[in-house]
Structure formats: C-alpha cells, structure tokens
C-alpha cells in the first residue's frame, strides 16, 4: 500500500466518524473544515472524492449531535479556570478530557488527566466504550500518583462521564474544586485539546492501527517514553514536563 492510500484510509476513518457524530449533516466543505480543526492536512478535493467513493452523503433531516453528552440531569459546575491554564506549582490545576482513535477493530477511547503546571499526563485509561468508568480509571491513576492536596482545581467539559455521581463523589472525597467548560466550547479546555492534537499528529495519524491492544501499547510508549520525559514545550521554556518539574522541585 502506497503512502497516499494509507493517508486515504486515515482520512476516511475520520470522515466516517465525523459523519456519524454530525448525524449525517456534514457535506464536503464543513467536513473538510472539521478535519482541519482536528489537525488533518486535507483539501476539499480529497474529502469530496472519499465521500463520493464511499457513498457518504448528507442527511438533511437530522440535527448535529456533539461528541460530549451534556444532555443529562447531573449538576453542572462553574468554570473556575476561565481559560487560565497557568499554575505556579504542581497539583493546583488538573484538566481532563476524552478523545478517540480509529483501529481496524473499531474505535478506542482515551481519557487523560493533565497537570496544567507542567503539562504532564498524570492519569490515562483506554476502553472500547466511552463510559464513566473510563474517566474514573484515568482519575484514579492521577490521584494514586500525585495524592493531591485539598483545593486542587479539576477541570473538564460537562459530559455525562464527568458529571456522573460516581465521578463527582471521588472529587468530593479528595476535596477537589470542580470546574467545567461552557457548553460546546472546546477553547475552555484548550490545554488538553493541544495534547490530543500533538498525540494524533506525532503518533496516531502516521500509520493505521490494526488492534486496540497494539494501539494501547503505542499510547503507553508515547506518553511514558516520549511525551512526559522528552517532548519539549514552548510554554515550559522548551523543557519536557518531567524536566520542568525536576527544575522546580
């Protein structure tokens, strides 16, 4: 398979995913912009060709449905961060979110918790379903690693995974300050979105993934072998998260 064909497979996987998330409401122009926002280097011609070849058409009688399930009866917390992603020390501000990765076995969902002081991934978990236990496992990893003091801000979107009673009970038990993004506003959690874009550009979109197990192993290596200990960040003075934490210790 040539590089062009491999890229077509990756682009097609994301077209299908976005087509489903949008309930069939995206035509070629909007689909292209959505893929560019995700970080894919694509043009209108390629997107249009792939949609036509695979009979992916606009269904105009349906409405857009976002990835985040905020249509629930759980309580919504205020936005305490207000897009201030800086911190003067570790365990002052944490942020979490969920993203997705296409494999030939189907979608793999990835939940992460990031310490905004160093941009270090301190908790993560994967699953073939986007349920509340996925987010809880990532949170438990972060808590066990850091043992945060009372008052740490915990920021996420207002999805049902994060608003669930079980998730919120863990936050109360550890005396977190709960913060949530505004409805449908990805910029309120831009630090985690930046991590996901880096992950996909530097790892996920460079090849096709056969199995979820293979993908999980690659994620482990990326997070623990590259992103946390080696990847340099302009916001950290071009230091890696671990190097930044060591310098400040």
With strands numbered from the N-terminus, the spatial order across the biggest sheet is: 3-2-1-4-5
Structural class assignment: alpha/beta
Shape label: globular
What profile does the largest beta sheet have?
5 strands, mixed
Primary descriptors:
alpha/beta; 9 helices
Brief overview:
With 249 residues, the protein is α/β, with parallel strands linked by helices.
What does this entry look like structurally?
The chain has 249 residues and is α/β, with parallel strands linked by helices. It has 9 helices and 5 strands, in the order αααβββαβααβααα. Strands 3-2-1-4-5 form a 5-stranded mixed beta sheet, sandwiched between helices. Helix 1 (3-21) crosses helix 3 (44-53). The radius of gyration is 19 Å and the shape is globular.
Task: Describe the protein's topology.
Layout: H1 3-21, H2 28-37, H3 44-53, E1 93-103, E2 106-115, E3 120-127, H4 132-146, E4 153-156, H5 160-163, H6 165-173, E5 177-180, H7 190-202, H8 212-227, H9 241-248
Parallel strand pairs: 1-4, 4-5
Antiparallel strand pairs: 1-2, 2-3
